[in-house]
Amino acid sequence: MQLGEVLQEFGALAGFKTLETNENGVVHMTIHKVGDLFIDEKYRDESGGCVFIYLLRVYDRINGNVYRRALSLCDYEPDEEFLVNPVLHNDQALGFAIKCPLITFDLNVLQKVIHKLKDLQDRLEGSDGSLSA
Predict the structure, then answer these.
(1) Whole-number Å distance between alpha carbons of 1 and 119
(2) Is the pLDDT of residue 26 over 60?
């Protein structure tokens, strides 16, 4: 499935009339109680290319303990469907990213990825919504 088709399906479910990439080929939306979601088609090649999906949240205080916790949440287990990487932006936005091959990318995969990224953010913050370090 093409990225544009997936974005249109996702946008329709989210209540958007259209959902398009910006001049850099990135879709960005802020989702209440989820964070800033980015969908970025990075490249195309003979294998079909890939899409990076990032979820970031801005925090007032990020320290070494928070970085270590984010890294530990990215530990890969053999039964995991996605390989997750931590993302830091401007020393105040922290989150997670997943790379998906375009050849297998569809609405179901996008929804699973967003759910996984949100779960990781929630776990990073702790049960009370504040960063636990």
Answers:
(1) 26
(2) yes
